[in-house]
Amino acid sequence: MVNPKRELMTEKELGELPNPYYDSAIIRKSNVGVIEQERGCPFNCNFCLVTDAYGSQIRYFPIPKILAEIREMQNYRLDPFFLTGDNLAGNPRKAIEMLEAIKDEGLSRYGRTAQVSVSAAKNERLLSLMRDVGIKHLCVGFEAVTDSALSDL
After folding, report:
1. Cα separation of 35 and 33, whole Å?
2. Nearest to 81 by CA among 39, 38, 128, 134
3. How far is the C-alpha of 117 from the C-alpha of 110, rounded, in Å?
């Protein structure tokens, strides 16, 4: 079964989504929370469903919503958490703005995880802020390691 194409949510609509529901059973069985900070990816790799599911334009959740979710995760003792957006480095300016807000609000903790493209390695400010807010683990997609393999993607 394939669902029909639908209009994707705007950034305003993303900001109006309720926070995920965590009841006592979920909290008891979880050791990490998840926070979605963005949807979409411009790369459109033929092996990946993100563009089909969320579109090719990255849309961001509002920073106040992300900060509120972090506080909620901390109240549930689900921190560290996983930033589940597909590429935190997709728009370094937006990522830096969000990370600075996390740091400024005193919400930094150690052991968090995020997904990035290899382009994150070229941005010292982004890397420094990720470290400052406690992102210890980066999931980096290496779709291929040779130019000839990349051309087949």
Report:
1. 7
2. 134
3. 21
Which residues of the chain are under the pLDDT cut of 70? 143-145, 149-153
Residue 68 CB coordination number (10 Å)? 12
Q: What is the dihedral of CA 33, 2, 16, 63, to 10 degrees?
A: 50
59 forms beta bridges with: 39
Residue 115 CA, chain-centre distance (Å), reads 6
Cβ-defined contacts of 141-145 (< 8 Å, 24+): 141/115, 141/117, 142/118, 143/45, 143/47
pTM, entire model:
0.87
- Residue of 105, 121, 109, 110 whose CA lies nearest to 63: 105
